[in-house]
Every structure is written in C-alpha cells, then in structure tokens.
C-alpha cells in the first residue's frame, strides 16, 4: 500500500501502452532544488525513490529524503535510513526456519490473545527449493533420477511443511524441488526489474528491489535490481512489514573498459574483481560498475560478477539498467509490456545507462581494463585468494610444502591407481555463479567434446558432477549436441540445485575416502562455485579451488592439482601425441556460434510456463490444513522453536553481563560455515548422537541444512565444523572446547549445557572478519541457544553482525589496534561487561577480565548495535520478539 506523505510533491504519472502509472519522480525532486540528484550513483537513486514512496513520518521522514538527496557522495555520512524492499526471496535451507518462525509467531500471538492471522507476509515472498539435493550418485545416466528420488524421500516432512505454508500464508509462493537454483530462477524468471502494484485504485510503478535469505541474492544486481542477502530473521521482519534499518552507504565506482581477451572467461573476471575489491576494502559499501566496458559484457557476465559481492565484501555489486537489460528481459520471455515499461520508467527516472551517460559521483573509484584479465582460479581456502592459472601448480605446492609427498595404491570400481597428495577427487560444475552463464556452460561442453574426440578421459578417482542452475541449461546443452560429450567425461546431470558449493557434494567412493582418511592425503576439489572455505565442500577435502566450468572439466581430465595446465600436457591422445589444454580450449567464436544456435527464448518460455506446479511427487504430497501448524513432537525435521517461551508483554531492562566464561576463542576469518551447522552430520557428533537416540539411522541423517527446522539438531552442530580451531584446546580441530574452570575437554554443546545448568553466561572472542561468508541465520540462532550473550571480535562481516543483533546477541568490537593477543587474553578468564543498561548505538562499554590466578585486564569495546532501530531489536531480545510485540499493539 503506497501512502506517502509526498512532502516534495514528487508524485506524478507516466503513460505506457495506454496504461497510466503513478511514480515518485526523481526529476521533480531535483527541480524542487535538490541539484545533486542527477549525479548520484544509480543505486542511490533507487534508494532515494524508495524513501520518497515510503515517507510516513514513522520509518521514513522528510529529513531522511533531504539527507540522501543533498548528499555529498564523496564523503561518508553515517546517516541512518529505513529501506522497504518490494519483495523477499527465500531458499529452502534458510526459508524453512523462516516459515517455522512465522508459524511459531502465530502460535505465540494466539497465546497472547491476539489474532494469529495477523502474522502473514505483507510483501510478496517467493521460496525456491534448491539446497536439498545431494550428489549421492554421479557419473551414470540414472544419477539425476536417483538423487531426486532420494532427495524427496529424505525431505518429505520439510516439503509437506512448505506446502502448508504455501496455503496458510498469503502472498507466499514455493518453486518446487528439481527446478533450479534460487538466484538463477530469480534472474531468469522471478525478477520484475520494474515492479507494479495497485494502491488506492491507482497503479504504481517503482524499482523492483528485494532482500533474500542467501548472500548471493546480489546476483540480481546484474539485471539492474537492487537487492542483497540478509539473515532469515531480517527477511521475516521484512515480510511482516518492518523496514530494514541501514546507514546511507558509501558507493565505490568500479570503471570497466575494453573487453575480455580470448581465453579468458567471466569467471576469470569475477575472481580478478574479487581480489581487487577485497584488497580495497568495501565491506558495508555499495559497489557500482560503470564505463564503456559494460557494453562488452553480456547480462550473464554481469550477473556472474554481481553474484560474488559477498566474496568481495560489498553489500551489492550493481549494474544499471541499459539496452542489454532490456534485451535479456525479452530473450528470457518476459512480457513485452514489462520490457517497455522498464525502458520508459528507467529513462524517466534517470536510471538508464548508455555509454554517453555522464559518470556519477562516487565516494571512491577503481578501474580495470578487461583486456588484462587472464585465466584464473581461487584457493585453496578463500574465494578472494586469486591464483593465475599459470601459477596454480606453484601455489598449491607452496600450500602443502610442509606435508611430505605420499601416494597409496587404491582400487575403486574396477580401476587400480595411485592416489597422491594433490589428487583432484571432486570436479563439480555447480553453483549459481557460473551455471547461469551460457557462455561458460557451453564452453565446458565444447571442451569436453574436443577432449572426447581426441581420446582423453577424466581420471577414475574424480567424482564428477553437473548441477545446472535451471532446466534451460539442459535444454541448450541438448540442443547444442554437447550433452553426450559431457557424459562421456562422466559429467552427468546430478540435479538442479546448489550442490557441491554448499557442502552437498555427497559421499566420496568408499575406497577413495578411506585412502584419504587413513593416509592423511591432501585431497583437492575444483568447482565452479563461489565458496571454498575450509570444511565446506567435503570434510575429507582440504584444498578447494574455484574455477570456470571449462577449467573444472580440464582438472577432471588432469586429475591433479600439482601440475601446470598451461605448460604440461593433459594426457596422450588416441593418435599417441601429447594434448595440451590450449589444444582443446574453445575459441570465443565457437562459443558464440553455438550459443546463437542452441540458446532460445522458447526454452525459457517452456521451462518457466508452469514453474510453481511441480512434478507428480510434489503435487501428491499430503498437506496439513489450518491457520496454525500442527506441530509433531516426534518430528526430527520440524520442531517448535523456543524463542517466544514465557515472553512478557514488555521487554525487561538490559542487564550487565557478570561472571561470563569464554566458550570459544577463535582466530581471523571465522566464517559462518565454521559457526553454523552445515554439510553432513557425523554419527559421533552431538547432533549425530541425538538423532541416533531418536532412532534415526546414520544413512538417514541427511544434512544440517535440511534439518534447519529443528533447533535441537542445529544447536548441537553450532561451532562443530571439522576445521574449527578453538584456542582453548590447542592442537584440536572440530567441536571441542575446554569447560572452565577445570579445563576439561568436551564438545562445545556439552560445555554450553553444563554452563547453562548453573546459570553462567557465555562469550565468544575472535579476530578479524568474524562471520564472513554465507548469510546463515543459524550462526546467530545457534550462538544464542548455546547461551552466548556477546561476541567480542576485531571486526564483523555485515550480515552476521546484523543477525547477532537480530537474535539478541551483542556484537562487540575491540578498539582499533587492540586484539585478544595484545591484551594478553587467554580465554580462561572470568568476564564482566558493564554499561548495558544505558546502551546506545556504537557506545563504548567497559570489559573486565580476571584470570583464575588473579590477573586483571580492563579494556574498552564498541557495541556494534549500529542504529536506533537495531537498539529496539536488542532491547526486545531480538527482532522477532520486537515485531510480535508491535503487532500485538
């Protein structure tokens, strides 16, 4: 409902194809005396329109609009604004707990005497089931059918629950499993670019904006849509009509010129951009791409770059609307009327880019000549650690130089071979980053074709997989005649979903897994994904490299990371001659010709024509009925969460933290993968033991992600990543901590429950970039449920900091130049944190630490509750409690 106060008389109308639309005109605002508006970055213009349209004197005030319209973009302002997206996008790993929380809020609303139906999405919400498929079977024609059937069997409870949500909640749609990856479905179908809605009898047009429960929501920035990833708790609040509180961002302009040289791909470009921007430091900032180089980038190329904004640390990586945007809308079978409205609206608002458009004014600027981009990978542990392909061998050798060379004879599936350090045991074409890009996927197919024709074969120890982001990819690979060649190299279709990149790589063949584990081999994965953090892809794979889809195929052929693909042969062909990567690398002309022939608008029209319908299994699900969910106490997938138990009508006053102990003392770059339960559940883990105690067999454990609707499983898996190093237990990796004061070694979960039984509050202390990586809300939820009151770190990644506040956990930052080491903290002290009763945004608080031997340390920290709105969330014990109390009023 548009109810703007319209203080600046900016509301006007435009006519497109005989239809009248109300808009909030940036041109009228500029003519009212705000002369900076036309030179604002395009992304800030979208935020400014959002403020104009949502001015209500509560969340958005006249002064907020003036602050942004008058902004000197070259300077940071630190001004808070509230942003209301047009819609919310969910994937199932984060979407299921979001729907669980909404169902629990309905229950709590009823118990408090309110109307349960008021808990309902007030914005359109779309959920794509894409994170549940696992690569159990691979390298055979029946792999997809097997994995899809197993996925459905494992997740039937979750899918029934989502079907209930689809009927119980208004404006909530679910894209069924085996359809595609959420970001690719969003790019190819769901995104409107310009949104339309009816209010007060009139039609309004405004920019399509969104938040999504996956950090890579930013992929849609490539289509000229402002959107970014948030935690599930923030997404729930947005669905319930709460704006997102944010500071007016600095905008870093990234000027692109020239065009990519032959042999370089969009993946090489994005890994180069990621390295540059990580070094620059753009956390919490908008990055906006501009310059003539944009015109040489296809829409999928732009989306590839935008996708990885979380990896370079930016809130968004934005590409303005231009002629390529319109061409892509038409090519992907969007309505012609929408394309015409988009063009008319964007030009009217001054948010349409051409090569002649004057450069906007930015806070800071960078430049890149696309012609300098070379074939590139990233690894072995972080996406920003770019490695030129020509240096990949040297880089890997250096990474494992402390590990003595070792090989072991291994037999698997009738083959006998030596498995050595550096063996590539997983080669996966996976993840939205690259599978949305036809040039990359066709490039992989052409490379497989040339390799097959010359007699090369992938090595027998490599687990190969092809997981496209949508069925359109299958259509054009089939139409191009490339599927048989990919299958000849064992890159068979394994599923449509986010597989290896999120840890759903499935088990390695038993003999290979045993050889790695028993001999301590450093095994390698090469994937076309966006994340390669430790322990994420597979617990037995210690080195993980991001690469383009063609390079994934090349490394499957090579089977080793310790070889130079630029100078060493991949193998010997059928004619007995050595074959090098350059011999089979497809030319740009070959890729372009194949794309023109095989990628068609009709395929998009066909695959998305009935996208919400689903297959026979989905349509045949038994769906629970009623406005309130019928919780099943015996379910191991869906459980009633405890967040609203005994919640008073008004929040209690914040109290200081006394007698706290440290649950974990951690280093730099602790990701949400380290904190949040992810990947497979080990039988001897606290979560595994819990499930076994309920009669669940290890074969039916599924993954942590699939069980995100059960807090009992998730809290047992928090801080349990196999690569987590807790300094309280030096020399250990995994779920371990020391229970204080005895220093007895036990699991984090067991220690937390022991502390909880005697009322001891807990802390986590860490280094720089705490909580980087995926927008996993369970990294904050699990932290809360373990009894952690505060996290003290040198710096926080944007989404996780926000998630901690949203769950009522206090993020605290060491003063600049101070660290746990410089202060001499061991983690074995008792802690007091004072000043919470008068907490304000970014207030300095006093921390006192006393060791068991009597040594005292006093230091200051900054409360990273950044805005007044976040202060409200924290005072209420979390964003969900805040929203529930507001709705009761």
Strand order of the largest sheet: 26-29-30-31-34-33-32
Number of strands: 34
From the alpha carbons, calculate the radius of gyration and give it in angstroms.
26 Å
Which outline best applies?
globular
Count of helical stretches: 31
- Helix fraction bin: 25-40%
Sheet-strand content, in percent, reads 15-25%
Contiguous uncertain segments of 5+ residues: none
Structural class: alpha/beta
Q: What summary fits the major beta sheet?
A: 7 strands, mixed, barrel
- Round the mean pLDDT to the nearest integer and report it: 94
How far apart lie the N and C ends? Answer: 20 Å
Characterise the protein shown here:
The protein is an alpha/beta fold. 33% of the residues lie in helices and 19% in strands. The chain has 31 helices and 34 strands. It has a 7-stranded mixed beta barrel. Strand 4, helix 4 and strand 5 (125-128) form a beta-alpha-beta unit. The longest helix is centred in the first third of the chain and has 26 residues, at 143-168. It starts with 10 loop residues before the first strand and ends with a helix.
Task: Quickly describe the structure.
The protein is of the alpha/beta class and 889 residues long.
List the helices and strands and how they pair.
Layout: E1 11-16, E2 19-24, H1 26-31, H2 42-53, H3 62-69, E3 80-83, E4 87-91, H4 92-111, E5 125-128, H5 143-168, E6 172-175, H6 182-190, E7 194-199, E8 202-207, E9 209-212, E10 226-229, H7 232-239, E11 244-247, E12 251-257, H8 266-280, E13 286-290, H9 299-307, H10 309-312, E14 316-318, H11 323-331, H12 336-349, E15 364-369, E16 376-378, E17 386-388, H13 392-399, E18 407-412, E19 415-420, E20 424-429, H14 432-435, H15 438-453, E21 463-466, H16 471-479, H17 483-488, H18 510-519, E22 523-527, E23 541-546, H19 549-558, E24 571-572, E25 578-579, H20 581-584, H21 588-598, H22 601-608, H23 616-619, E26 657-665, H24 672-675, H25 686-693, H26 711-717, E27 736-739, E28 744-747, H27 748-757, E29 762-765, H28 778-785, E30 788-793, H29 798-806, E31 810-814, E32 830-834, E33 844-850, E34 856-863, H30 868-875, H31 879-888
Parallel strand pairs: 4-5, 4-9, 5-6, 9-10, 12-13, 12-15, 13-14, 20-21, 20-22, 22-23, 26-29, 29-30, 30-31
Antiparallel strand pairs: 1-2, 3-11, 7-8, 16-17, 18-19, 24-25, 26-32, 27-28, 31-34, 32-33, 33-34
Helix pairs in contact: 2-3, 4-7, 8-9, 11-12, 15-19, 15-21, 25-26, 26-28, 28-29, 30-31
